[in-house]
Design goal:
The chain is α+β, with helices and mostly antiparallel strands and 121 residues long. It has a single domain (2-111), classed as 2-Layer Sandwich (Alpha-Beta Plaits), CATH 3.30.70.1060. 26% of the residues lie in helices and 34% in strands. It is built from two helices and six strands; from the N terminus they run βαββββαβ. A hairpin with a 2-residue loop joins β3 and β4. Belongs to the YciI family.
């Protein structure tokens, strides 16, 4: 089963990943890729560089970032291959533990509904 782990951050915290954190994250990603539990991952650019497209009852609108009404934003994601929601949570906890006590982040974990003729799940 595939799960999406969305990393929620306060992008205005001013925290920048240290070289040690980046190295530790690299090791963890290599390990999880070898295990077959990490399918894909990426960080996202700041909301100041993004746009929101909205459909409000058939009327499309476009809003430029940054999105000041958002206290937390999705700062990145990981697509996980896990046997259950509990397994996906264990994998996400490994990711969070790498950050130590300096960071204040959380992840939302949800199972993906994969469809289409080539989908196995």
């Amino acid at each position: 089963m595939k799960f999406l782990s969305m990393i929620r951050i306060n992008e205005n915290s001013g925290l920048v990943p240290s070289e040690k954190l980046m190295a530790d994250m690299g090791k963890l990603m290599e390990e999880m890729t070898r295990e077959g539990t990490l399918v894909d991952t990426a960080g996202l650019r700041p909301t100041a560089e993004g746009k929101r497209v909205r459909n409000a009852h058939g009327k499309l609108s476009l809003t430029d970032g940054p999105f000041t009404e958002s206290k937390e934003v999705i700062g990145g994601f990981a697509v996980l291959e896990a046997t259950s929601l509990d397994h996906a949570i264990e994998l996400t906890e490994r990711f969070l533990k790498v950050h130590g006590d300096e960071w204040n982040i959380e992840c939302e974990v949800r199972q993906m509904e994969c469809g289409g003729p080539d989908s196995a799940t």
